[in-house]
Structure of NADH-ubiquinone oxidoreductase chain 2:
Amino acid sequence: HWLMAWIGLEMNTLAIIPIISTSHSPRSTEAATKYFLTQAAASAMILFSSMINAWQTGTWDIINLTYEPAHILLTLALAMKLGLAPMHFWLPEVLQGSTLTTALIITTWQKLAPMSLIYMTLNNLSTTTLVLLELLSSIIGGWGGLNQTQTRKIMAFSSIAHLGWMITISSIMPNIMILNLTIYLIMTTALFYSLILSKSKTIQDTTATWTLSPALTAMMMTLLLSLGGLPPLTGFMPKWLILEELVAQNLTPAATVMVMSALLSLFFYLRLTYTTTLTLSPNTTQTKLKWRFKPNHTTLLMGASSTISIFLLPMAPLMLL
């Protein structure tokens, strides 16, 4: 029922507002306000599209979305909820105003509800609109991250680019979309945990990670390369399957644009990798004292998610035996 879906989305939005504004700084209050306004507008658009559809068809069933203006409006509303380009402007700003833990929640958990609605209404959504959104998202996700120095903003543009890849395949093979979403959630969780443990909020902070834990530094390097989609790491698997399917469906121009935009994303992942593992920035003696501060919490979740993010593709043939 559309009304239930709308209520669920509203509860989801209202629940995370206090979490964003917990640090009580003007920046976090601004981020919470931006998040609230955007999500409330998107929820209103979803309710409006479902009402138009109910008016035309006489049913509030989520699956039965047959009126064209209603499903175009719904596609745009869900894109705004997710942060797909060109409705992406709120995402980097909100993440930058939040703590790293809150940014992790926004980029992972908050994507599940809109993605599940997309999955349920795929047969009726406007394919043209979806293709335009995914191409824009993959290009802007790569381009926008190039000139960023804040790790949270980089992760925001990474999120936009990955969502572009998911939406690309959604109307062709929803199963690959689910696989891509699962792998993205695991990889993002692992990388955010690494950033939380090393307290790295800027690219400059990542240069001092080695003083805290050399093992964490190596882990971050492989996680970043996996997010960039380099074989034989896990992140290559969804990209490989998506490109294979796009070429099989004669969508070679779209596949070419996606590959070119993936190169843009790879550039800023490589830059982060380079600063984390291969450089020693100009520093004072104080920088080297970072090892004195023990990591505040080590979790089983980080170990598990990091392992899957790095070794899932090489281990896949063994799983099938």
About this structure: The two ends are 43 Å apart (CA to CA). The longest helix spans residues 26-57. The CA atoms of residues 21 and 28 lie 5 Å apart. The chain has a mean pLDDT of 89.
